[in-house]
Every structure is written in C-alpha cells, then in structure tokens.
C-alpha cells in the first residue's frame, strides 16, 4: 500500500482527504462537547449532545488514525525526523488519554460529571486537539 501511495497522486490525495475528513469529524465533535462541559449552551440537553458527539468523535479519531498510518507509511523516516510530527503524535496521545480519563471518571455518556468538576479536562482537551491541528498543518511546511 505504501508503494502504491508513494507513486499514485490520486491515491495519496484520497487518503489525505480521508485524513482531513476524520480530523474534521473528531474536532468538530470534540470542540462543542468540551464547550458544553465548560458551561456553554446551558439550554441544550447534555446527554443528547453527548450521545451524538461522542460516537462522532470516536469515528473521526479512528478514520484519522487509519488514514494517518497510511500517510506515514509513505515516508516514515522523513516524518520521524520532524520535531513537529513527533510533537503532534505526543499531543494526539495526550488528547486520547484526556478523553479516556474524562469518560473513565464520569461515565461513557458523562452522566456523573458535576459542573464544578468538569473544567480542567475539557479545557485540556480543547488545548490538545487545537494544538494537534496546528502541528499537523505545520508538518506541510517543515523539512
């Protein structure tokens, strides 16, 4: 697959577009969820939002990881030399750990999350995912 992607302009472009789609699903779901947990959109029912946004974010993450592995396979040595790529991988790992911690502490649907206890994890989540976006974009300009 790596060989095909290395020499196929349209194949690589399709995988890159798939990666962007996964990221859009992930960040597009995580950001409103985190903002809701931080106290925005008080009239909106948290459970209804969580039941839509959590599976959307998880699907986006899986798509982004699968397509990211394919993109990485094209030039692994080159990517591993880029500090911004390594930073992105660490930040993505931190975002995943933060999400897993949030759900482990407060339930899959965040049903046990009291308002006063929800500040630091959603705030960290926003920081991680926006930082991962920035690093991902910078990879195109590095090296």
From TrEMBL:
Q: Which residues cross the membrane?
A: 12-32, 52-72, 84-104, 119-140
Organism superkingdom = Bacteria
**Keyword annotations from UniProtKB, A to Z:** Membrane, Transmembrane, Transmembrane helix
Q: What is this protein called?
A: DUF2214 domain-containing protein
Organism annotation: Rhodobium orientis
